[in-house]
Each structure stands twice: as C-alpha cells, then as structure tokens.
Amino acid sequence: MLLIRSVLFNTAFYTNLIIRMIVLSPIYFLMPRKAAYRIPKAWAASCNWLMAKIVGATFEIEGLENVPQGGCIFAPKHQSAWDTVALLPYQRDPVYILKRELMWIPLFGWYAMKQRMIPVNRGARGKIMIDVMKRTREEMANGRQLIIYPEGTRRPPGAEPQYRYGIARIYRDVQVPVVPVVAHWGLFWGRRKLIKHPGHFKVRILPPIAPGMDPDAFYAHLLETMERESDKLLIETVEANPQLPLPPTAVRRLAELKAQTAA
C-alpha cells in the first residue's frame, strides 16, 4: 500500500506541476511580481494537500508569531525535497540565493527571475560576491525573507551536523534577524526515496536571533540552538509516529540522546 500511495503521489505531484505551468505561466508572467507569487504559493499548498490526501502525511506549525514583520533570514533544517516548498504558503515574500545554473532551466529559471531570486556562481569571489550581497541587502530592505539552509545540503534526520559558515557572513553583512526552523521532514519524505510515509509532525519556528552579534558567536549560538531543538523534536516526532521506519542516523542519534539522559 505504501508503494502504491507513493507512486500515486509522485504521479500527481508532477502532473500538478506540469499542468499548472502550462495553464498559468502566461498569467504569471503578465502579473506584477508580488501578485504573481500567489501562483507558486498556491502550487506549494496543493503539494501539501496531495501529501495529506494521498500519503497521509500532515504537519502543523508552531511559532509563526516568531516571524518578524520586516526583512529577515529563515534558517531551516534541510532534509527533504518537501521542505523546499512546504513552507511557501506561510511566507510573505521569500527570496533565495540560487546557483546560477538553476536560472538557465526553462520555465523554472524564468519563474525565479520573475521573483527576483539572486543567482550566484559558487566559485565566485571578490566583486561578484560583493554584488550578490548588495542585491541581498536591497531585497531585505524591501521586507523580504531570505531562505538559507545553514547546512547547505539535505541531511538525513539525526545526522551529525555540518553547518557552513556562510550564514554567519551573511548575518554580519545583512544585519537582519535570523529565524531558525526545525522539523523532521526526512522521516516522511526521505532524500532520493520513492516511498513516502504517513504520519503527523510539527514544524517549530524558533525565536529570532537579533542582528549585531559577533559572527563567530552567532554561528555557535545558531548551531547549538538548532541542534538542541532538533533533538527534542526528533524524540517527539518518533514518539508520535511509532510506525515510522527510522534511518540509521536517527536510530543512532536517539540512542545517544537516551544514553545522555541515563547518565
């Protein structure tokens, strides 16, 4: 049954994406940028609906009141393709720093350009990075939310953290609050996994970290806060969903946490 539901979901997911792009793209490109965001936002909401109705995987969000009204940086844990779209319906005007190659993809790249996403050559230095940061500050000044995954790439639930220092440099240069976000999407929609698992879990938006800290102190504080809260939420998620098959990283981390509690 899990296989059938997962295949049905994958089919519905891509069919939904293709049909919306074909039907709505002409409207999207004629609309003003902020109004046009309603189209990808509605698509993201439909993805969450498909996960709920076909797979049986649902989530609730705690801490929306922690999101500042002005420009800020969202810093979520990144475990799954799902977490790249699932929160879009709850974000007012997000912006991403993307590797420039993604901007060359037909339709996707055009959608991204319309939303003023910020392309970057990952090997770039000097003036190019100065220009990227200038663009980022401009978007933050317009009240947008910059989405940055502190670990840079998807990591399985419970995996040893591998945070990158880049977020500390951006925090120093942009001078806006950073909002950590933790959740264990990967237990339900794993990286490069066909099977999707039913269940219910929480996404926790933590209190923002105010601008102005020393970058090294900020980096240490962000890592400690996110990993502590992620561990708590891992325990809660597994206890609330005992049917889930756990990846080895989660099994190992839960054993470590249990041993720490016993000590």
TrEMBL record:
<keyword id="KW-0012">Acyltransferase</keyword>
<dbReference type="InterPro" id="IPR002123">
    <property type="entry name" value="Plipid/glycerol_acylTrfase"/>
</dbReference>
<dbReference type="GO" id="GO:0016746">
    <property type="term" value="F:acyltransferase activity"/>
</dbReference>
<keyword id="KW-0812">Transmembrane</keyword>
<keyword id="KW-1133">Transmembrane helix</keyword>
<comment type="pathway">
    <text>Lipid metabolism.</text>
</comment>
<feature type="domain" description="Phospholipid/glycerol acyltransferase">
    <location>
        <begin position="72"/>
        <end position="186"/>
    </location>
</feature>
<keyword id="KW-0472">Membrane</keyword>
<feature type="transmembrane region" description="Helical">
    <location>
        <begin position="12"/>
        <end position="31"/>
    </location>
</feature>
<protein>
    <submittedName>
        <fullName>1-acyl-sn-glycerol-3-phosphate acyltransferase</fullName>
    </submittedName>
</protein>
<dbReference type="Pfam" id="PF01553">
    <property type="entry name" value="Acyltransferase"/>
</dbReference>
<keyword id="KW-0808">Transferase</keyword>
